[in-house]
């Protein structure tokens, strides 16, 4: 923590609050994505192509929650 930025979050709790504890990994992805050179819209496209259609919206919300945490 002394030499690097460290972000901590209870991703499982955040995912539960959103309504699906299984999307905790997308919360973490959102946190990591904040520090990558890709637009949020590009990440949304990845989510749309890789998750089941019925879970797209909850995964986008999980991504956004993680993204906001890593400000």
Descriptive report:
With 71 residues, this protein is mostly helical. The protein has four helices and no strands. Helix 1 packs across helix 2 (24-33), helix 1 packs across helix 4 (56-69) and helix 2 packs across helix 4 (56-69). The protein is flat and about 40 Å long. The model has no long low-confidence stretch (mean pLDDT 94).
Question: What order do the helices and strands come in, and which of them pair?
Answer:
Elements: H1 11-18, H2 24-33, H3 40-50, H4 56-69
The helix fraction, in percent, is 55-70%
Helix and strand string, N-terminal first?
HHHH
Overall mean pLDDT stands at 94
Low-confidence stretches: none
Largest sheet data: none
Keywords:
single chain, 71 residues, mainly alpha, 4 helices, 61% helix
Outline:
This protein is mainly α and about 70 residues long. About 60% of the residues lie in helices and about 0% in strands.
């Amino acid at each position: 923590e002394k030499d690097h930025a460290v972000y901590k979050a209870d991703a499982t709790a955040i995912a539960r609050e959103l309504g699906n504890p299984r999307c905790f990994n997308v919360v973490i992805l959102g946190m990591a994505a904040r520090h990558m050179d890709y637009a949020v819209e590009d990440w949304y496209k990845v989510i749309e192509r890789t998750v089941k259609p019925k879970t797209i919206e909850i995964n986008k919300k999980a991504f956004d929650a993680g993204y906001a945490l890593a400000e």
